[in-house]
């Protein structure tokens, strides 16, 4: 499998926000989102065996929370799934596994113990049309979260309508964990760790959420407020 980086920091988003986490970042992505903040993952990377990844994770112990991200980790499904099963079988450490994915690739074979953060692309991403497999909705569990990155009102209304059509009933009956609404960041943010680097004003987004009564939570990328927004490996 080809990795861009493997490091320990704190989780910047999702319901695990603020929790120490080991990030395993895969190389390669088959989408090109307009607001992408990890274009450095599109090419390159270094090949790692499963044993080498395990060794690096163990070297960063103690830290039982692990996130697989990218790029798009499911492009490495053949190598990733056995790695997940091996980590889940470790009864000594009892790892909690997360994966951030676009939902463009089938998710049915991902172990149900893995917390999936599925990023449904909105129109402002430029990758919305046909990228999300609605069949992946059947693979979601109460551990999983669905994320929408928003640039403007058009993106919000797309997310609102998707939530109402596909997710509200799953939230109500407990078959999906959380819905996350996250303002996009500028492609070229300043070094200042402020909300001015967000493309969508968080206050506006909160007003819209409250007006529509969506079963969702505001999700800010806290690592971009703790460190400079362009900093990697955090």
Automatic annotation (TrEMBL):
What EC designation does it have?
4.3.99.3
Please name the GO terms of the biological process aspect recorded for this protein, alphabetically.
tRNA queuosine(34) biosynthetic process
Q: Which Pfam families match?
A: Radical_SAM
Keyword 4Fe-4S attached: yes
Fetch the Gene3D superfamilies from UniProt: Aldolase class I (3.20.20.70)
Give GO terms: molecular function aspect only. 4 iron, 4 sulfur cluster binding; carbon-nitrogen lyase activity; magnesium ion binding; S-adenosyl-L-methionine binding
Q: Which PROSITE patterns match?
A: RADICAL_SAM
Q: Where along the sequence do coiled-coil regions lie?
A: none
Details of cofactor binding: Binds 1 S-adenosyl-L-methionine per subunit.
Q: Which UniProt keywords apply?
A: 4Fe-4S, Iron, Iron-sulfur, Lyase, Magnesium, Metal-binding, Queuosine biosynthesis, S-adenosyl-L-methionine
Per the record, the pathway is:
Purine metabolism; 7-cyano-7-deazaguanine biosynthesis
Binding, S-adenosyl-L-methionine: 35-37, 71
Co-factor(s):
S-adenosyl-L-methionine; Mg(2+); [4Fe-4S] cluster
> Could you tell me which InterPro entries the record lists for this protein?
7-CO-7-deazaguanine_synth-like, Aldolase_TIM, rSAM, rSAM_sf
Q: Which residues cross the membrane?
A: none
Reactions accelerated catalytically? 6-carboxy-5,6,7,8-tetrahydropterin + H(+) = 7-carboxy-7-carbaguanine + NH4(+)
Enzyme class, broadest EC rank: lyase
Q: Where does [4Fe-4S] cluster bind?
A: 29, 33, 36
The chain positions of domain Radical SAM core read: 16-229
User: Where does this protein hold Mg(2+)?
Assistant: 38
What does the record note on quaternary structure? Answer: Homodimer.
PANTHER family assigned: 7-CARBOXY-7-DEAZAGUANINE SYNTHASE
According to its UniProt entry, what is the function of this protein?
A: Catalyzes the complex heterocyclic radical-mediated conversion of 6-carboxy-5,6,7,8-tetrahydropterin (CPH4) to 7-carboxy-7-deazaguanine (CDG), a step common to the biosynthetic pathways of all 7-deazapurine-containing compounds.
Write out the similarity annotation: Belongs to the radical SAM superfamily. 7-carboxy-7-deazaguanine synthase family.
Instruction: Quote the protein name from its UniProt record.
Output: 7-carboxy-7-deazaguanine synthase
Q: Identify the species of origin.
A: Terriglobus roseus
């Amino acid at each position: 499998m080809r990795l861009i980086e493997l490091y320990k920091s704190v989780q910047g988003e999702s319901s695990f926000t603020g929790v120490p986490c080991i990030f395993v970042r895969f190389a390669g992505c088959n989408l090109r989102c307009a607001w992408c903040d990890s274009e450095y993952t599109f090419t390159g990377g270094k090949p790692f065996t499963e044993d080498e990844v395990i060794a690096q994770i163990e070297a960063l112990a103690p830290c039982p929370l692990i996130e697989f991200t990218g790029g798009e980790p499911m492009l490495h499904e053949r190598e990733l799934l056995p790695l997940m099963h091996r980590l889940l079988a470790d009864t000594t450490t009892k790892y909690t596994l997360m994966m951030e994915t676009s939902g463009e690739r089938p998710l049915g074979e991902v172990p149900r113990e893995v917390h999936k953060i599925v990023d449904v692309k909105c129109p402002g991403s430029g990758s919305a049309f046909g990228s999300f497999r609605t069949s992946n909705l059947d693979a979601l569990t109460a551990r999983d979260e669905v994320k929408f990155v928003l640039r403007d009102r058009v993106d919000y209304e797309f997310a609102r309508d998707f939530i109402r059509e596909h997710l509200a009933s799953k939230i109500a009956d407990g078959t999906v964990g959380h819905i996350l609404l996250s303002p996009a960041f500028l492609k070229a943010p300043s070094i200042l760790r402020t909300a001015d680097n967000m493309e969508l004003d968080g206050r506006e987004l909160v007003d819209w959420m409250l007006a529509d009564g969506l079963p969702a939570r505001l999700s800010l990328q806290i690592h971009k407020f703790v460190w400079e927004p362009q900093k990697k490996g955090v």
